[in-house]
Amino acid sequence: PKFTLPLENTTVLTGSPFNMSVRVFGNPQPTIQFYRVIQGSSMKLPSDALPGLTDEVGASYSIETASQADAGEYYVIAKNTYGVETNKAFLKVVRATEPAQVSILV
Hints:
By secondary structure, the protein is an all-beta fold.
């Protein structure tokens, strides 16, 4: 398998939706699984299959409302009978900064 659309490091605002997607080429068509690293252990994540071409498959993982707890390392494993490929990225969740208050004296 070969990633044609790999994961990318991303920064999102707290409370924002977030989606990470990958596409993988391979023959036979590879299976894809998302994982998150939490305190040194891998947690399998649910993902949605994306329609692909004959030898390409995609998958995505979504977070409806990102929080600080969602920040960290994510990775994807794509495998078929000829091999295994891994791709990883980091998600950073930041708070929206409040606009500076401006005083106008007349």
